[in-house]
Specification:
This protein has 728 residues and is mainly alpha-helical. It is built from 27 helices and 13 strands. Among the domains are: 233 residues, Alpha-Beta Plaits; 140 residues, no CATH class. 56% of the residues lie in helices and 7% in strands. The strands form 6 sheets. It has a 3-stranded mixed beta sheet. Strands 2-3 form a two-stranded antiparallel sheet.
C-alpha cells in the first residue's frame, strides 16, 4: 500500500520546521534571501529550486463578517508524488520512477538531462541545477531513503524488544518533515487510512474545512493529501484534471507497435498495386513507357563549384561560430550558456529540433512517392532529398547533445526501458531512421568510387537491416512477443518479395518502406510529447490527436522544402528549372496540405476552441492556419499557378514557414508557464547568443556539406546540352 502524508493546513503555524528539517536531512545549501514580493507575505524562498524541496506559502484569505476580515493560512508545498506521475512517465530512461510504497525518486546515474519531467509535472516540482556543469534534476523524494531504513536490532548495546522495534519504526521511519512538525499538521501513514481520516475530519467539522481533499483525485490521485479551511484556488493550488496525465500518451505510444506492422503492410500493398499498374501501363503503351523510363532515370554527375565563394565563406564563418558556441555550451554549462530556467526548461533548441525534423520529412516523403508509389518521373529529386534528410537528422542529433544536461549518459537509453515515454520512442526511432537514411545514400558513393564489393554487400543485406531494425524497434517499445513476431513476419515477407531477380537492378524499395515506417512513428510521437501538457499548452495547439497533426504537417512541410531546395539548386548552379517535376510535387503538396488543414481546423472546431480565439494567441493561430495554410493551399490548387515558379516558390515557402511557426507556437508562444511550485513567479525566456550560434551554425553546416556533396558526388542529374542552353 502507498504511504501518504496528510497535510491539515488549519493546524499549520508557519514555523517552517519542515522546511529546515528537509534541508538538514537532504544536505541542501541555503539560498540568498530577497525582499518579500508583493502578495507573498513572509514567504521565503519564493519557489522550489534545486536547493529547496519544501516551501511554506503564506496567504491572507478573506473572511467577511469575521474580525479582522481575513485570516492567515500557511501551507506546506512540495512534490505531490502522484499515483501515476507524469514526470516518471515522461522520463525516457526511468531516472524518475515511483516506488511501490509511494515516493517518486530520482536516480542521477540514469539521467540524460532532457528536462522533459520539468514540463510534464502539472505542479512545477522538478527543478534543475542550472549552475552546475554536471546538472541533476532535484525534488522531494518523500524521504524514501529514511523510509527504507531497517529497524535496528540493538539500542545502546541492548537488544530491542518487538514492542520497542514497533515504537521505533512508528517514531523514526517517517519523512523528516513529518517528524519535525510540532503542531500535528502532518500525519504519515497508509493512503486509504489517511483518506478515510480526512473525510471524517470534514464530516465532524464541516464549518472548519472546505469539502475537498486536494490530492484525492487530482492528476489521478497523489500521495500528498491536503485539508484546508478555504478554497484551494485561494491558497494558490492549481486546478488540475482528475484523469492521470500519462493516460493519453500511454494510449498513443501503445498504438506504435501495431501501427508499425500496419504501416509496413499498407506500404507493401501500395507498392504491389503501384507495380501492377506500372506493368499494365507498360504493356498498353510501350512507346510512352520508354519515354517515361528515359525521363525517370537520368544520369547523375557532380556539379563542381567554387568552394571559396563568398557564400561558402559566410557559411564557414557561421560554422566556426557554431563550433565555438558548442564548446562554450559545455564550458559554461546550461545555466551559463542559455536563457533556460526552471520556468523555461525547453527553448530555442527544442523549437529548432522539432521544426527541422518536420521540414526534413521530404526525405521519407519523396522516397515513398518515388519507390513505393512508383512515381519514377520524380526520380531526379530522390538523391538530393535523401542527402538533405541525412544531413538534417545528423545535425539535429548534434544539437540535441548540446541541449541535454547529461549527454554522456546516453547509454541509459539502451539499458532502461520506461513503460510509455514518448521521448524514449522518439530517440530510438530517430536512431533507426538515421541508419536507414545512411543506407539509402550509400549506393551513391559506392557506385561513384567503384566499390563493387561493398555495393554487393549492400545489395544482399540492406533490406534485411530494415527487417532487423523494425523488429528490434518493436521489441524495444512493446516487449510483447506477438507484435515482435508480426513485425518480423510482415517485413521479412516484403524483403523476400522485393528481392530482385537475377540480372535485375536492385532498388531501395525496402529502405523506402523502412524510412516511411520510422518517420511515421517519430513524426507523430513528437506530437505525443505534448500530450502530458494539457495544462500548459494552449488548446489551440494542444489536442488529443496531436500525433496525427504532427505527422500530416511534416509531409506537407517536407515536400514543400524539397521544392524550395530544387529551386535553390537551379538558381544557385544556373541549371534548368525542372518545372514539370516541381509542379507535380506542388500538386502532391496540395493534397498533403489539404488533409492536414482539414484535420487541424476540424479538430479545433470539434473541440469548441474557436470560441477561445482572442488576443495575441488568436492572431498567432489565424496567421499560422490562414496566411501560412489556407493561402498556399489556394495557390497550389490551380495547375497554371503551380507551373509559375514565383507562385510555386511563394506557396512552398509559406507552407514551410507555417509548420515552423506551428512548432514555435507549441514550444514558446502557446505555452502558459507558471514556473516552479508554488508557481507564483514565472521567469522570462530569451535565447542567448550561444543558443542562436549553435542553431545557425548547424543550419550553415547542413547547407555547406550539401554543397560539398553536390560538388564531389553524383547527387544532381546531369544537364543535357539543350537544358543547359535553356538555363542560359
Amino acid at each position: 500500500m502507498p504511504k501518504t502524508t496528510l497535510i491539515d493546513t488549519t493546524k499549520c503555524i508557519g514555523c517552517r520546521s519542515c522546511q529546515v528539517s528537509c534541508k538538514a536531512w537532504n544536505d541542501l545549501p541555503g539560498e540568498k534571501t530577497i525582499a518579500p514580493t508583493e502578495g507573498l507575505g513572509y514567504q521565503e524562498p519564493r519557489t522550489l529550486s534545486s536547493k529547496t524541496f519544501v516551501v511554506i506559502t503564506d496567504r491572507l484569505v478573506d473572511t467577511p463578517g469575521i474580525a479582522p476580515g481575513f485570516k492567515q493560512v500557511f501551507t506546506k508545498r512540495q512534490c505531490m508524488h502522484c499515483e501515476e506521475p507524469a514526470c516518471a512517465s515522461a522520463c525516457p530512461v526511468t531516472a524518475l520512477h515511483k516506488h511501490a510504497d509511494g515516493p517518486v525518486v530520482y536516480d542521477k546515474s540514469r539521467c540524460i538531462g532532457c528536462r522533459y519531467c520539468m514540463w510534464a509535472c502539472p505542479w512545477g516540482v522538478p527543478t534543475a541545477q542550472w549552475e552546475s556543469l554536471d546538472p541533476s534534476i532535484r525534488k522531494c523524494t518523500h524521504c524514501a531513503d529514511r523510509l527504507s531504513a531497517e529497524v535496528p536490532q540493538y539500542h545502546n548495546g541492548i537488544a530491542m524488544t518487538a514492542e520497542e522495534k514497533s515504537h521505533w519504526a512508528v517514531r523514526h521511519i517517517e519523512p523528516a518533515c513529518v517528524k519535525a512538525c510540532p503542531s500535528g499538521c502532518l500525519k504519515y501513514g497508509e493512503r486509504d487510512e489517511l483518506l478515510a481520516e480526512a473525510k471524517q475530519r470534514i464530516k465532524k467539522s464541516p464549518g472548519k474545512y472546505v469539502d475537498h481533499i486536494y490530492g484525492e483525485h487530482e492528476a489521478g490521485g497523489t500521495t500528498m493529501l491536503y485539508l484546508a479551511s478555504a478554497p484551494f484556488e485561494e491558497l494558490g493550488f492549481p486546478k488540475v484534471q482528475s484523469e492521470a496525465f500519462p493516460r493519453l500518451s500511454a494510449i498513443a505510444l501503445g498504438a506504435v507497435p501495431p501501427a508499425v506492422v500496419g504501416v509496413g503492410a499498407a506500404l507493401g500493398g501500395a507498392y504491389a498495386i503501384s507495380k501492377r499498374r506500372e506493368a499494365v501501363a507498360k504493356a498498353d503503351a510501350a512507346e510512352r513507357s520508354a519515354k517515361h523510363a528515359e525521363h525517370s532515370h537520368p544520369e547523375f554527375a557532380p556539379v563542381p563549384g567554387n568552394m571559396y565563394s563568398t557564400f561558402n565563406k559566410v557559411l564557414m564563418f557561421l560554422m566556426g561560430f557554431g563550433a565555438l558556441s558548442f564548446l562554450l555550451r559545455f564550458a559554461l554549462g546550461l545555466g551559463g550558456s542559455t536563457g533556460l530556467s526552471d520556468t523555461w526548461a525547453w527553448g530555442l533548441w527544442i523549437v529548432f529540433d522539432f521544426a527541422w525534423i518536420a521540414i526534413a520529412a521530404g526525405a521519407f516523403a519523396t522516397a515513398c512517392i518515388i519507390y513505393v508509389l512508383r512515381r519514377q518521373d520524380l526520380y531526379a529529386v530522390g538523391r538530393s532529398a535523401v542527402l538533405m534528410g541525412l544531413l538534417s537528422y545528423t545535425f539535429v542529433m548534434i544539437t540535441l547533445l548540446a541541449d541535454l544536461g547529461l549527454p554522456w549518459h546516453f547509454y541509459s537509453l539502451a539499458i532502461y526501458a520506461p513503460k510509455h515515454s514518448a521521448m524514449f520512442e522518439v530517440a530510438w526511432c530517430i536512431a533507426f531512421y538515421l541508419s536507414v537514411l545512411l543506407l539509402e545514400f550509400l549506393p551513391v558513393p559506392l557506385d561513384w568510387f567503384g566499390m563493387k564489393k561493398y555495393r554487393e554487400l549492400w545489395n544482399q543485406y540492406s533490406d534485411w537491416w530494415v527487417v532487423i531494425a523494425v523488429t528490434a524497434f518493436v521489441f524495444i517499445l512493446s516487449h510483447k512477443l506477438i507484435w515482435v513476431v508480426l513485425a518480423a513476419a510482415v517485413f521479412s515477407a516484403m524483403a523476400a518479395m522485393l528481392k530482385p531477380k537475377p540480372g535485375q537492378k536492385k532498388e531501395p524499395i525496402m529502405l523506402a518502406i523502412g524510412a516511411v515506417t520510422f518517420s511515421t512513428m517519430h513524426q507523430s510521437s513528437l506530437g505525443s510529447l505534448y500530450l502530458l501538457m494539457p495544462d500548459k499548452l494552449s488548446h489551440l495547439w494542444w489536442s488529443p490527436i496531436l500525433p496525427i497533426c504532427y505527422f500530416l504537417s511534416s509531409i506537407a512541410a517536407g515536400i514543400a522544402l524539397m521544392v524550395l531546395v530544387e529551386m535553390w539548386i537551379a538558381k544557385g548552379y544556373k541549371r534548368t528549372l525542372r518545372i514539370d517535376e516541381l509542379a507535380t510535387m506542388g500538386r502532391l503538396d496540395f493534397w498533403a496540405l489539404l488533409v492536414y488543414l482539414a484535420v487541424r481546423i476540424g479538430d479545433v472546431a470539434v473541440r469548441g476552441e474557436f470560441s477561445h480565439i482572442s488576443g495575441a494567441r488568436g492572431v498567432d493561430f489565424l496567421v499560422e492556419v490562414g496566411l501560412m495554410g489556407v493561402l498556399p493551399l489556394l495557390l497550389l490548387s490551380v495547375g497554371k499557378l503551380r507551373r509559375n515558379p514565383t507562385v510555386l516558390g511563394l506557396a512552398s515557402a509559406l507552407v514551410v514557414v507555417g509548420v515552423v511557426w506551428n512548432r514555435w507556437n507549441a514550444v514558446v508562444y502557446g505555452m502558459d508557464l507558471k514556473g516552479a511550485m508554488p508557481q507564483l513567479g514565472p521567469l522570462h525566456y530569451s535565447p542567448s547568443i550561444i543558443e542562436w550560434g549553435i542553431s545557425v551554425g548547424m543550419v550553415a553546416a547542413t547547407i555547406f556539406l550539401f554543397r560539398m556533396g553536390v560538388a564531389y558526388l553524383p547527387i544532381l542529374p546531369k544537364e543535357t546540352v539543350e537544358s543547359a542552353a535553356a538555363a542560359d
